[in-house]
Amino acid sequence: MAPFLNRRDLQFQLFEALDTEALTARPRFAEHSREVYEDILNVAYTVADRYFANHTREGDLNEPHVVGGRVQLPAAVGEAMRAFREAGFFSAHHDEELGGLQLPWVVMQAVQAHFQAANVGSSGYPFLTIGNANLQRIFASPEQQQKYMLPLLEGRWFGTMALSEPQAGSGLADITTTATPLADGTYAISGTKMWISGGEHELSENIVHLVLARIAGGPAGVKGISLFLVPRYRVQADGSVGEGNHVVLAGLNHKMGYRGTTNTLLNFGEGGQTVGEIVGEPGRGLAQMFHMMNEARIGVGMGAVMLGTAGYLASLEYARDRRQGRHASNKDPHAPPVPIIEHADVRRLLLRQKAFVEGGLALGLYASLLVDDLQTGPEAERTDTGLLLDLLTPIVKSWPSRYSQEALSDAIQVMGGAGYTRDFPVEMYYRDNRLNPIHEGTEGIQGNDLLGRKLTQAGGRGLEILLARIQADLNASDDLSGLEDIRAALRTAVTQCTAALGALLPRAAELGPDLLLANANSALEMLGHTVVGWMWLRQATAAARALPGARPSDQPFYQGKLHAARFYATHELPKVRAHADLLASADRTTTDMHTDWF
Amino acid sequence: MAPFLNRRDLQFQLFEALDTEALTARPRFAEHSREVYEDILNVAYTVADRYFANHTREGDLNEPHVVGGRVQLPAAVGEAMRAFREAGFFSAHHDEELGGLQLPWVVMQAVQAHFQAANVGSSGYPFLTIGNANLQRIFASPEQQQKYMLPLLEGRWFGTMALSEPQAGSGLADITTTATPLADGTYAISGTKMWISGGEHELSENIVHLVLARIAGGPAGVKGISLFLVPRYRVQADGSVGEGNHVVLAGLNHKMGYRGTTNTLLNFGEGGQTVGEIVGEPGRGLAQMFHMMNEARIGVGMGAVMLGTAGYLASLEYARDRRQGRHASNKDPHAPPVPIIEHADVRRLLLRQKAFVEGGLALGLYASLLVDDLQTGPEAERTDTGLLLDLLTPIVKSWPSRYSQEALSDAIQVMGGAGYTRDFPVEMYYRDNRLNPIHEGTEGIQGNDLLGRKLTQAGGRGLEILLARIQADLNASDDLSGLEDIRAALRTAVTQCTAALGALLPRAAELGPDLLLANANSALEMLGHTVVGWMWLRQATAAARALPGARPSDQPFYQGKLHAARFYATHELPKVRAHADLLASADRTTTDMHTDWF
């Protein structure tokens, strides 16, 4: 069985392409060292391998179902949760005083990557729980944190985010779940929430839902939305779990993939009062939720990368083992068949996968390190860091979601009919990952966010910072020979991006928001492909610097990095142009289409 | 529930974009008329709607399984086979003296399209049977046709093609199934065949396998491969079904999709002698099988088109019904939500689907009409027709397989979370269609066929004919205003193709076959996208000519054709350039990659 993750690559990404070790110079991480991080990653690997990878297919085949009113999951899921809890991962990035290790977020993402790669379905429960606690850490009152957050950090209770409703998925402004003030300052929550992952199960003592709702009588639209902590079971004064809170499972969604994570339709206030506590001020719900959402968007991107990685490694192993055919130049029918990795088109499919998943991993970890910089980096740089992270977030979410799906399609293709069967995991990964372009904001939402908000906020400062960082990395590799084609391809792509945005954005007012956003997908594709090109320059630079002094056993790894960067530069970066040209033209083909012409 | 097929579009494709009616001037079709064809298509629609569309999801959920040694399928599959048989479709394209209607192949493909769209899984059984009979009609002896083909035309027996083996899928030269001559001129067949669709079931009285095998002592490689008729049950002198022929089901494959078609591992000669009859001369097996294979490749392309079509129509219906959000320019939170088809990015996703599936349909039917031209067109043109059909076949097989998958991904995306669940059919179509780039020759095989064989055979005459036909259609639309951008985009793409092939092909000997074929995927993408651009010019031309005289109720249809052509020209044809540039460079990135660098 192929490994689910390339540990050598993760090490390279964290400590060679990025300088994660430098974080230890910051006071919060002063007790850490590279060895500490590597030890923690080793634990993550062991737990993921033993307790998560062992039931990935079982979770897929035996999808959540209801028996006697309770959601049934394979027993192994509970074991996995216990192992994750015992390893301390629910609180590892939190303060020491809260029982955490003060792990940097980039290392925490690398930890989580193991579980996403090993079993994305089971990993959903802890990751929602961690995200929920992170939101509470910022916005909940000390009393609320004591009551609702600490049990999450201990892994005794789990968390969800409950935003969507049957009539409002992408359009959150139209949610109708209501919160009616009660005499004691709490609220009665009433309404139906849809697509709630981890919304019901028996894995934890309690479930803490973060629920968007409208306080009765408040304004329409997003301004009337507030955020509430709503437990499945009411919490007693001593913090123990009490009676039911009338959050009722109305149904399970039956998904194509990602089946290990139960996905629910929940009725709040059915058969009795559902009590919730407001988080912070009324009307701030969507803004607060976006904290969890932005974190989740990076997490979704990373999850896509890891599914793509697991598929790549499975198809790579197959391609090395499976013998079939001969080189086209060999006409001797008596010659033995070669491993299919010898065939150029199979190698193309493998290189494409490598370029997509390792490029995506570099991007996800780069963004995660920005989260650390935002929290612990030099104060003077934090505004810029935040703007860059804002700009990159829609790309980090959507690019790997899309291109890991391409990679997984390639993994199936490498394996042919075998890849299309349940005898191998790649068909499952392909089904699993197809969720990633949908949840936590569809690709369309990400495109609108990028072109309609992130590229123009603060006078376009985010783009300026991005371009300056790319330029700095181009300059920093200027002395390296062998990277000329990579640099040239990236420079061309950057020039095309700059020209297209320079042609479009000044016309935004004239074009109007509808036509502008009609071009959002082109912006997402153009910038996404370019940003990943930048990630490949950074990886190629690190590899080229390491190669001369590398041990012989490590040289193929660095050569592979250099060659995958070349592949991305020659096969992928030239695709930027078509998107840039379309964007520069402020294309109106989609807006000109009449609905009755379909 | 959305319709599975757009009948208006099929009519347009057959009788406006193509001149199928002109076939009635040929002696074989002299009794026909457009009305006859339309009546037959109406019957196909009715049968597909009542007897195939009714159990598509059932066939997916209740996948074939073995009980008591027999393959179990839903009862509705048997009903569907009966209805197909009673409608006379097993023999509709055959001679009247064989009980057929002498239907042109293009009309027969249009008939089959209904069943592929309604239920691709159940349609697999008749289509393999029809293909098997077509091969027999050309290569089997009159006695064999009497014995093995007539029951297929009656739909009493079904057929398969049995090529692959566990160690030889794409690499057919390495098959090891053996045929040992017996005293009476028949052969004892021994070996294992893998991936045999329709290889075992209880739907028909008998199953006739067309089996590739090696006569003991023959040459290695493809020259030693012969073709055999191997029935599941032996056939008695009076043509009735006799004792078992020791073709044993060794296992069923469990697929991601396409589950309605049983897919088997078969042992020949297990527990007794499997008797087969050779078709034609020894050593001609692969060449003979390629007749069925080429036909099946067009059928796979058409199947992909129809899955994409069914998904497009389902997502279109959803987009018209589902209300969510407002136009970006409307900031009033009290305004009612709009149908999501109003959002530009949803319209983009729908236009892309329309462009891919209707472009693919035009291509599949164009190729099918070439099959008619080859059989009944002017004698003097048949050599050229055959070369053009040869050139187009790998494109007809692979382009829709790939781009219907893109379309189906877009269909899911339009529907968001709903599209990812089993509440709607699009997730099933997405799983179903992922088989199409694999079976009947993978995409890699199609690329090699195109660049390594079809583009160079007969001195490149196939490409000459293709370019001449495109030029003729460009000239024929020259007087039409409003098509300028479409013509310009197609001309640019054609110029890029010509330049790239002009740069590459003269260097073929110098580069050697390995490096040449390393670039096969670029050739496939480049020519595929260009050829479909041509199909869109043809459709736009037909629409532009029809529009001025069209009834008001028909005008939106023609406007939609024109606009989808514009979309393809602006959003898709510009992608040709990156592939052409890569091809022209005789890229060596994939061949330069060392296997230990992964």
TrEMBL record, chains A, B:
Pfam families: Acyl-CoA_dh_1, Acyl-CoA_dh_C, Acyl-CoA_dh_M, Acyl-CoA_dh_N. Its cofactor is FAD. Belongs to the acyl-CoA dehydrogenase family. InterPro entries: Acyl-CoA_dh-like_C_dom, Acyl-CoA_Oxase/DH_mid-dom, Acyl-CoA_Oxase/DH_mid-dom_sf, AcylCo_DH-like_C, AcylCo_DH/oxidase_C, AcylCoA_DH/ox_N, AcylCoA_DH/ox_N_sf, AcylCoA_DH/oxidase_NM_dom_sf. Residues 467-593 form the Acetyl-CoA dehydrogenase-like C-terminal domain. This is 3-methylmercaptopropionyl-CoA dehydrogenase. Keywords: FAD, Flavoprotein, Oxidoreductase. Residues 79-155 form the Acyl-CoA dehydrogenase/oxidase N-terminal domain. It comes from the Bacteria. Residues 283-450 form the Acyl-CoA dehydrogenase/oxidase C-terminal domain. Residues 161-265 form the Acyl-CoA oxidase/dehydrogenase middle domain. The keyword Oxidoreductase applies. The keyword Flavoprotein applies.
